TrEMBL record:
<dbReference type="InterPro" id="IPR014419">
    <property type="entry name" value="HutZ"/>
</dbReference>
<feature type="domain" description="Pyridoxamine 5'-phosphate oxidase N-terminal">
    <location>
        <begin position="14"/>
        <end position="145"/>
    </location>
</feature>
<dbReference type="GO" id="GO:0016627">
    <property type="term" value="F:oxidoreductase activity, acting on the CH-CH group of donors"/>
</dbReference>
<dbReference type="InterPro" id="IPR052019">
    <property type="entry name" value="F420H2_bilvrd_red/Heme_oxyg"/>
</dbReference>
<dbReference type="InterPro" id="IPR012349">
    <property type="entry name" value="Split_barrel_FMN-bd"/>
</dbReference>
<keyword id="KW-0560">Oxidoreductase</keyword>
<dbReference type="GO" id="GO:0005829">
    <property type="term" value="C:cytosol"/>
</dbReference>
<protein>
    <submittedName>
        <fullName>Heme utilization protein HutZ</fullName>
    </submittedName>
</protein>
<dbReference type="GO" id="GO:0070967">
    <property type="term" value="F:coenzyme F420 binding"/>
</dbReference>
<dbReference type="InterPro" id="IPR011576">
    <property type="entry name" value="Pyridox_Oxase_N"/>
</dbReference>
<dbReference type="Pfam" id="PF01243">
    <property type="entry name" value="PNPOx_N"/>
</dbReference>
């Protein structure tokens, strides 16, 4: 795709993706425990300028899993009632690394403030509990699907590089990701 076409695609899609993220209150999490056993769950989130923040209890399975393995997959998903077709719901998925945020850090204060601004004083109460941990989710490769035949690969810093996936939406193979990292 030419640079001009790529730029037009970015200018059109990035605001749409940002609006889609802002409309969602929760994200779906695919985590795994120390033995690699998968778990699907969800968590309310807040988006700050440096990533997604979630506050989860280590008593919950996903809270334990994130401490055991910091690799996860995340999905923001259009509500079924809003979708034109349940077969082609809008969704944003991405691979991410979960970073446990130290309680006495500026990042902890920033993440809790972002969550509190979005969800109110309940966040402050939960953040004060010893079993709740703040994680910053750092996205890597992503995929935005807005309908049939409309899948767009997202990569680069803050997932700002857009590529229309004309060959389906299978994501980037691990070998290609390793190549990009080198």
């Amino acid at each position: 795709m030419s640079n001009e076409k790529e730029q037009r695609l970015r200018e059109k899609l990035l605001p749409e993706i940002e609006a889609f993220k802002a409309e969602r209150s929760t994200l779906q999490l695919a985590t795994q425990d120390a033995d690699g056993v998968p778990n699907a769950s969800y968590a309310p989130f807040a988006l700050a300028d440096d990533g997604f923040y979630i506050l989860v209890s280590e008593l919950a399975r996903h809270g334990t899993n994130l401490k055991a393995s910091n690799s996860l997959s995340v999905m923001l998903l259009e509500d079924e009632a809003e979708a034109k077709s349940v077969f082609a719901r809008k969704r944003l998925t991405f691979d991410a690394t979960a970073e446990l945020v130290e309680r006495d850090s500026e990042i902890f204060a920033k993440g809790v403030a972002a969550l509190s601004a979005r969800f109110g004083e309940m966040i402050d109460n939960l953040a004060a509990l010893g079993d709740f941990n703040l994680f910053k989710l750092n996205p890597h490769h992503g995929l935005y699907v807005k309908g049939f035949g409309q899948a767009f690969s997202l990569s680069g810093a803050e997932l700002l590089d857009v590529d229309w996936k004309r060959d389906g939406h299978h994501g980037t193979p691990k070998a290609e990701l390793a190549e990009e990292a080198s």
